[in-house]
Amino acid sequence: MIQLEDFNQQIYDQFSSLLEKKKMTNQLNDSVSVQEFLAESRRLNIIEKAPFYVAKCLFTDQIVKEIEAYRMLFYQLCKKHMARQRSLLLGIEMIINENPEVQEKLLNTGCISRIFYELYQKDIVIEEVFYQWHEQNATEIIDETVSTKIRDCAKNFIEWLHSAEEGSDEDDNRSK
Protein backbone atom coordinates (compact mmCIF):
# COMPACT_ATOMS: atom_id res chain seq x y z
CA MET A 1 0.00 0.00 0.00
CA ILE A 2 1.28 3.44 -0.84
CA GLN A 3 1.86 5.64 2.18
CA LEU A 4 2.75 9.29 2.39
CA GLU A 5 6.44 8.59 3.07
CA ASP A 6 6.59 6.53 -0.16
CA PHE A 7 5.67 9.54 -2.25
CA ASN A 8 8.98 10.90 -3.55
CA GLN A 9 8.33 14.23 -5.29
CA GLN A 10 11.55 14.21 -7.32
CA ILE A 11 10.92 10.77 -8.76
CA TYR A 12 7.27 11.65 -9.34
CA ASP A 13 8.31 14.80 -11.25
CA GLN A 14 10.75 12.82 -13.39
CA PHE A 15 8.18 10.10 -14.03
CA SER A 16 5.36 12.55 -14.80
CA SER A 17 7.62 14.41 -17.23
CA LEU A 18 8.24 11.16 -19.10
CA LEU A 19 4.49 10.43 -19.06
CA GLU A 20 3.66 13.86 -20.44
CA LYS A 21 6.24 13.51 -23.21
CA LYS A 22 4.91 10.09 -24.20
CA LYS A 23 1.33 11.34 -23.99
CA MET A 24 2.06 14.33 -26.23
CA THR A 25 3.71 12.07 -28.83
CA ASN A 26 0.89 9.51 -28.58
CA GLN A 27 3.24 6.80 -27.31
CA LEU A 28 1.30 5.36 -24.41
CA ASN A 29 -0.58 2.70 -26.29
CA ASP A 30 1.95 1.03 -28.55
CA SER A 31 3.78 -2.05 -27.31
CA VAL A 32 7.33 -0.75 -27.80
CA SER A 33 6.67 2.49 -25.91
CA VAL A 34 4.82 0.67 -23.15
CA GLN A 35 7.76 -1.72 -22.71
CA GLU A 36 10.18 1.24 -22.58
CA PHE A 37 7.91 2.86 -20.03
CA LEU A 38 7.85 -0.27 -17.88
CA ALA A 39 11.65 -0.49 -18.07
CA GLU A 40 11.94 3.13 -16.91
CA SER A 41 9.55 2.39 -14.03
CA ARG A 42 11.80 -0.44 -12.96
CA ARG A 43 14.92 1.71 -13.34
CA LEU A 44 13.39 4.38 -11.09
CA ASN A 45 12.44 1.60 -8.68
CA ILE A 46 8.76 2.59 -8.71
CA ILE A 47 7.19 -0.23 -10.72
CA GLU A 48 4.84 -1.14 -7.85
CA LYS A 49 3.74 2.51 -7.52
CA ALA A 50 3.71 3.26 -11.25
CA PRO A 51 -0.06 2.72 -11.70
CA PHE A 52 -0.68 5.27 -8.93
CA TYR A 53 1.61 7.79 -10.61
CA VAL A 54 0.12 7.09 -14.05
CA ALA A 55 -3.43 7.55 -12.76
CA LYS A 56 -2.42 10.76 -11.00
CA CYS A 57 -0.81 12.12 -14.17
CA LEU A 58 -3.23 10.96 -16.85
CA PHE A 59 -6.71 10.78 -15.37
CA THR A 60 -9.19 13.63 -15.42
CA ASP A 61 -12.94 13.60 -14.99
CA GLN A 62 -13.05 11.44 -18.16
CA ILE A 63 -11.58 8.33 -16.55
CA VAL A 64 -13.70 5.81 -18.47
CA LYS A 65 -12.56 7.22 -21.83
CA GLU A 66 -8.98 7.44 -20.56
CA ILE A 67 -8.99 3.79 -19.47
CA GLU A 68 -9.84 2.89 -23.05
CA ALA A 69 -7.26 5.31 -24.49
CA TYR A 70 -4.46 3.91 -22.30
CA ARG A 71 -5.73 0.36 -22.08
CA MET A 72 -2.50 -1.33 -23.17
CA LEU A 73 -0.43 0.69 -20.70
CA PHE A 74 -2.71 -0.11 -17.76
CA TYR A 75 -3.00 -3.75 -18.75
CA GLN A 76 0.78 -4.18 -18.97
CA LEU A 77 1.35 -2.30 -15.73
CA CYS A 78 -1.23 -4.23 -13.74
CA LYS A 79 -1.60 -7.72 -15.18
CA LYS A 80 -0.96 -10.44 -12.61
CA HIS A 81 0.20 -7.89 -10.02
CA MET A 82 -2.35 -7.32 -7.28
CA ALA A 83 -0.24 -4.65 -5.56
CA ARG A 84 -0.12 -2.64 -8.78
CA GLN A 85 -3.86 -3.05 -9.25
CA ARG A 86 -4.41 -1.69 -5.72
CA SER A 87 -2.02 1.13 -6.57
CA LEU A 88 -4.18 2.02 -9.58
CA LEU A 89 -7.34 2.10 -7.45
CA LEU A 90 -5.57 4.33 -4.95
CA GLY A 91 -4.52 6.62 -7.81
CA ILE A 92 -8.16 6.91 -8.88
CA GLU A 93 -9.11 7.73 -5.31
CA MET A 94 -6.39 10.39 -5.25
CA ILE A 95 -7.67 12.06 -8.43
CA ILE A 96 -11.15 12.26 -6.94
CA ASN A 97 -9.80 13.36 -3.56
CA GLU A 98 -7.67 16.22 -4.90
CA ASN A 99 -10.14 17.87 -7.24
CA PRO A 100 -13.56 19.16 -6.11
CA GLU A 101 -14.76 19.40 -9.74
CA VAL A 102 -13.88 15.76 -10.33
CA GLN A 103 -15.61 14.84 -7.05
CA GLU A 104 -18.73 16.64 -8.17
CA LYS A 105 -18.78 14.86 -11.53
CA LEU A 106 -17.62 11.37 -10.55
CA LEU A 107 -18.62 10.85 -6.94
CA ASN A 108 -21.84 8.99 -7.62
CA THR A 109 -22.77 5.34 -7.90
CA GLY A 110 -23.13 5.33 -11.70
CA CYS A 111 -19.73 6.87 -12.47
CA ILE A 112 -17.73 4.89 -9.94
CA SER A 113 -19.41 1.65 -11.06
CA ARG A 114 -18.69 2.47 -14.73
CA ILE A 115 -15.02 3.18 -13.97
CA PHE A 116 -14.61 -0.06 -12.05
CA TYR A 117 -16.57 -2.05 -14.61
CA GLU A 118 -14.20 -0.83 -17.34
CA LEU A 119 -11.17 -1.84 -15.28
CA TYR A 120 -12.73 -5.24 -14.65
CA GLN A 121 -13.90 -5.88 -18.23
CA LYS A 122 -10.49 -4.98 -19.64
CA ASP A 123 -8.76 -7.37 -17.23
CA ILE A 124 -6.83 -4.55 -15.59
CA VAL A 125 -8.13 -5.17 -12.06
CA ILE A 126 -9.36 -8.55 -10.79
CA GLU A 127 -12.29 -9.28 -8.47
CA GLU A 128 -10.16 -10.06 -5.42
CA VAL A 129 -8.44 -6.66 -5.60
CA PHE A 130 -11.79 -4.87 -5.78
CA TYR A 131 -13.01 -6.82 -2.75
CA GLN A 132 -9.86 -6.06 -0.74
CA TRP A 133 -9.92 -2.41 -1.72
CA HIS A 134 -13.60 -2.08 -0.78
CA GLU A 135 -13.01 -3.56 2.68
CA GLN A 136 -9.94 -1.49 3.56
CA ASN A 137 -9.94 1.83 5.37
CA ALA A 138 -8.79 5.09 3.89
CA THR A 139 -5.05 5.65 3.68
CA GLU A 140 -3.36 8.68 5.16
CA ILE A 141 -3.11 10.34 1.74
CA ILE A 142 -6.86 10.22 1.01
CA ASP A 143 -9.44 12.17 3.00
CA GLU A 144 -11.43 9.61 4.99
CA THR A 145 -14.78 11.19 4.05
CA VAL A 146 -13.98 11.07 0.34
CA SER A 147 -12.68 7.51 0.61
CA THR A 148 -15.86 6.42 2.40
CA LYS A 149 -18.04 8.09 -0.27
CA ILE A 150 -16.10 6.37 -3.06
CA ARG A 151 -16.55 2.99 -1.37
CA ASP A 152 -20.25 3.70 -0.84
CA CYS A 153 -20.56 4.55 -4.54
CA ALA A 154 -18.77 1.31 -5.43
CA LYS A 155 -21.09 -0.85 -3.36
CA ASN A 156 -23.41 -1.71 -6.27
CA PHE A 157 -20.46 -2.73 -8.42
CA ILE A 158 -19.04 -4.91 -5.63
CA GLU A 159 -22.45 -6.55 -5.16
CA TRP A 160 -22.67 -7.12 -8.91
CA LEU A 161 -19.21 -8.76 -8.83
CA HIS A 162 -20.32 -11.06 -6.01
CA SER A 163 -23.48 -12.07 -7.85
CA ALA A 164 -21.61 -12.58 -11.14
CA GLU A 165 -19.07 -14.75 -9.34
CA GLU A 166 -21.81 -16.78 -7.64
CA GLY A 167 -23.56 -17.23 -10.99
CA SER A 168 -20.33 -18.43 -12.54
CA ASP A 169 -19.79 -20.90 -9.69
CA GLU A 170 -23.31 -22.27 -10.14
CA ASP A 171 -22.71 -22.70 -13.89
CA ASP A 172 -19.45 -24.54 -13.15
CA ASN A 173 -21.22 -26.87 -10.69
CA ARG A 174 -24.03 -27.64 -13.20
CA SER A 175 -21.56 -28.56 -15.94
CA LYS A 176 -19.85 -31.18 -13.74
Keywords:
mainly alpha; Serine Threonine Protein Phosphatase 5, Tetratricopeptide repeat; W2_domain; disordered N terminus; W2 domain-containing protein; ARM-type_fold; 176 residues
Mean pLDDT score: 88
Percent helix: over 70%
What spatial form do the alpha-carbon principal axes imply? globular
Distance between the amino and carboxyl termini: 39 Å
Counting helices, strands and paired strands, the structural category is: mainly alpha
Assign the CATH class. Answer: Mainly Alpha
Tell me the series of helices and strands, N- to C-terminal: HHHHHHHHHH
Number of domains: 1
Radius of gyration from the alpha-carbon trace, in angstroms: 16 Å
- How many helices? The count is 10
Oligomer: single chain
| Strand segment tally | 0
Biggest sheet character: none
CATH architecture: Alpha Horseshoe
Reported by name, the CATH topology is: Serine Threonine Protein Phosphatase 5, Tetratricopeptide repeat
**How much of the sequence is in beta strands?**
under 5%
Taking pLDDT < 50 over at least 5 consecutive residues as the criterion, the unreliable ranges are 1-5
Protein name: W2 domain-containing protein
InterPro entries: ARM-type_fold, W2_domain
Pfam families: W2
